């Protein structure tokens, strides 16, 4: 029987970005004979006109929910938390009769993938509280610095993960492994731990790439000459 997988992009940005790119890559690795996939963005339901009831209907209709989002400090973005509360409240009155499963992808700009664990634990607790079977979480570290330098030249929102080549091979490999497990109806890991993926670049090179990225943004916005300014620094 065909299973419905709903990808919910939790990024609050206007355009799809890294969160969308990761989720799409995982979905493309699923067995197309077993899954029917659909992509939605939380921001489209909860910013501006309130469409929370429609969001709940979409979530209740799926067999698998894939939540993907950027890490904000140590937790999911506020819109994701809001969506979780709305779904939780709706299920206090009535839960879907079907069995549902959930997994999540958290991505951050830090070089350490363990930074995502707290946010993924939040997703696990949400799943357990609202009747989803938790299938596992994926923590991605350092993607922003890796792709943003290319993003200065091309639209990252439209670029597939594999288009960045060797720089994203660790991410692609981990997501492909996760897609295979989901296609087989299995949890992402046998012991319930999160899959943690880090960038292929050495830490020192990653920092250099990050600095180059920010200098590129500054140049593009006419602020390169102010790049090293410290306006809030107090004189000794």
Binned strand content: 15-25%
Cα radius of gyration in angstroms: 19 Å
Bin the helical content: 40-55%
* Terminal residue distance: 70 Å
Shape: globular
Structural class category: alpha/beta
Low-confidence stretches: none
The number of distinct helices, counting runs of at least 4 residues, comes to: 8
Specify the CATH class. Answer: Alpha Beta
What is the name of the CATH superfamily?
Flavodoxin domain
CATH topology descriptor: Rossmann fold
- Per CATH, the architecture is 3-Layer(aba) Sandwich
State mean pLDDT (0 to 100 scale).
Answer: 89
The secondary-structure element order is EHEHHEHEHEHHEH
Description:
By secondary structure, the protein is α/β, with parallel strands linked by helices. The protein has one domain (3-220): Rossmann fold. Helices cover 42% and strands 19% of the residues. It is built from eight helices and six strands, in the order βαβααβαβαβααβα. The protein has helices at residues 18-28, 42-46, 52-61, 78-93, 117-130, 143-151, 169-183, 203-220, and strands at 3-9, 35-41, 64-70, 100-108, 132-141, 195-198. The chain has a six-stranded parallel β-sheet, sandwiched between helices. α4 links the parallel β3 (64-70) and β4 (100-108). α1 (18-28) packs across α7 (169-183) and α6 runs parallel beside α8 (203-220). It is globular and about 65 Å long.
